[in-house]
Amino acid sequence: MSDRLQILQESVRHLADVTSRLDPEQYTSPAFPSEWTIADTYSHLGSGAVIGKQNFENSINHRENDPAFNPSVWDEWNAKEPSVQVSDCLVYDRSYLSALEDASPEQRESFSFNLGPYTFDFEGLVGLRLSEHALHTWDIEVAIDPHATLSSEVANAILDSVNFIVSMTGKSTGQKKSVTIRTTAPVRNFTIELDASSVRLVESINEGTVDLELPTDALVRLIYGRLDAKHTPSSLTGEVVDELRQVFPGF
Description:
A hairpin with a 4-residue loop joins strand 4 and strand 5 (199-203). The chain is globular, with a radius of gyration of 19 Å. It is built from ten helices and six strands, in the order H-H-H-H-H-E-E-H-H-H-E-E-E-E-H-H. It is an alpha+beta fold. The strands form two sheets. The chain has a four-stranded mixed beta sheet. Strands 1-2 form a two-stranded antiparallel ribbon. Helix 1 packs antiparallel against helix 4, helix 2 packs antiparallel against helix 3 and helix 2 runs parallel beside helix 4. The relative contact order is 0.12.
């Protein structure tokens, strides 16, 4: 079994654990971001699981996707009561994971998925689900635990495939600049390269002092627009953090 799939299994178990700590009265409370309730976030994860599983099974069975399927799923989930959105999410979340687990080596090897100009293999698909799953689980958990973080294992795995998100959501500041970064637990070095119209994150060799040193969890949440002042480690202050919040406003 791939490392990413094992980490996704842990994320699925963690979501179930977080859910067990919720009072049903909290389902309609704000998640992160506050425009979504906790139940809305479960609905997003649950509908995403239904769509992801169907698209995955269509691909490995060489079936065409029905363009009407996704909107029908969203309409169905939007109509559910909050308590049902939560409970159904856990069911379909596990079902999607099982479909990925049960895929044969041949099916994994031949799998290919296009998302706009990007093509993903099986590992890439698992990475996409892991990123979505872990960050939205954090969105829920932080509503009941302001000190919630991503595990180092999850954050490190997300960083391995985060360039897709950087290229999609990074906003250039209009200037050419490089920002050196070092993460802790594990130690990794990156450079964020800004120019007039693009943002890139590249793994690099940064010796000595860097512009920003931060936990791996914090870097991932920064890139995903989840490192607001309220959820930033107290040791992280200054212009570099403020500037990078503008580069990565979230989506």
